[in-house]
Structures
1.
Amino acid sequence: MGLIIVLVFLGAFSVVALIAIASGSGASQQAKQVHATLDSALATDSPEERGPILDLRKTDRLSSIPWLNRKLLSYELTPRVQTLIYQADLKWTAGGMLAGCALCFVSIGYLAYWRTDSVLIALAAGALASGMPYFWARHKRGKRLDKFQEGLPEALDLMVNALRAGHSLIAAMGSVARECADPIGCEFKACFEEQNYGLEMKTALDNMINRVPLQDLRIVATAIMIQRESGGNLAEVLDKTSHVIRERFRLKRQVGVHTAQGRMTGWVLSLLPVFLGTALYFVNPDMMSQLWKNPLGIKMLWTSFGMLVVGTLIIRHIVNMDV
């Protein structure tokens, strides 16, 4: 008898639960239909179909840590670091780069001190290692600027074709922003959008030159501004400018070929003492440790370091030629 009562209770509970679920799903479907009707009446899109909300405000966030961000904003060196990071197209912040430099200094300096038991060697190794993020950013910046310089003549040719087809200068820059790959496309897109937001042509070009400090781009901006002030055929001016840039680029590569041996010699003479000293230390640590344990060895070490720096600068001055 008790089993029958339990079964009747479970059956009745199941029926009531099913009725409640069905009524709830029906209400939710009714609510969805009402929301869809309201959205269609108000001509609004669903959250999935809406595009992302763009924030047009210019933020200067140099670090994710609030107090460090305030400190970095108060220093004059920080904008230069931020400009370097932007030109290198790195997803870093100024605070992150400085923290990376400090981390390299502490870690490499500690390893050098643990290995050599010399504060002088530890400080020198840490100082050299602390510049690794900076030199990496400089390397990426040089690669990006070289890529921009290589693609600039093709971008000018595209602008010339657009101008000869009857488009305006702003429309021609917009076509470069759409058709060319980065970094040409993104920089011209920024200049194009600045003009659409109300900036003058000269201000927009100056901003692009500040972002991409290349002599070829300065030539292009000067040619555009002279044509806007004095008049003339802008398509012909840009065509000749593109030809001049190509000739400068060809001459620069020719000079690079003739100075390749000198540059390689400079790299070998500059890095050979460092690698040779490191190898000799691993072969015979007692002999090499006399350079920082003996007072005479310390003087010899500082003298060799100074001569190495002077020789590197002299070779660099010889092989670097401005075209």
2.
Amino acid sequence: MMKNLIRALRLPFITASVLPFVFGSLINRSHFQVAGFLLGFIAAAATHLGSNLINDYADSKSGADWQDKKFYGLFGGSKLIQENVLSEKFYLNSAIVCAIIASTAVLGLAFLLKSSAVVIYYLIIIILGWSYSTKPLQFSYHKLGEIIIFLLFGPAVVMGGYFIQTGVFPDMKSFVLSLPFGFFTTAILYANEIPDFYNDQKAHKFNWVSILGVDRAYILYLVLMFSGVASVALAFRLGFLKMFSLGGVVILTVPIVKAALIMKKSPADKDQLVKSSQMTIAVQTVASIILIFGTFL
């Protein structure tokens, strides 16, 4: 059961939310607040996991995840509904439990920080997170999912972590520093959309892959990934990051290019595209760790 739960939660993807949050919390460590950090960490993680669950629920309802029932691990959903292992109701109820856990942590934050604004900010975040998949908005079905992912896994988590520690929002420094996370995580989503593109179309789910088509999807992938690298360079130019961070992220251009070449050569081969998705996740994770470590230099 534990193995299925991990798969249903898509637990390996949790780094996409918690690492940016950790980074945002460490941008200014002069008055690091441990209780606030822990509550924010719980809220970020639970919101992300709940959004994963509701995504599987919504994509099952729409038929998107029924087009190809094979489990690839990185795209196409967890497939546990399609394998008759878990029910749609389980996913919905579990997503609600995650939302309750996150909301409780947020209320604790509001009390700790003596700020009702925290609750308002979180309401916006959870509405966007659930509306990514669910009706009536279903952003991911109308070429808006990438924008939502960029906002939630970039500015929202990084600036949120910074706000908890400093009480400052909005803030230009934390916004600029959030951009690499937004671009790299959006690239993960985009890489995972390429192998699912034709199946998604059958379920009337349209994303950015349709902008250039599957055969040229690698071009927009490179734009997203190199925008992440460029935003690190911008942060360095503005004095927000050290040379260590810039140099470390620049080295990651090698796997970025390798992943793009796989997309170019095998745009319809899902088994090959698993490799490009793995490389993209690795780049996001390693870049996040480099940026976090850079805050201590």
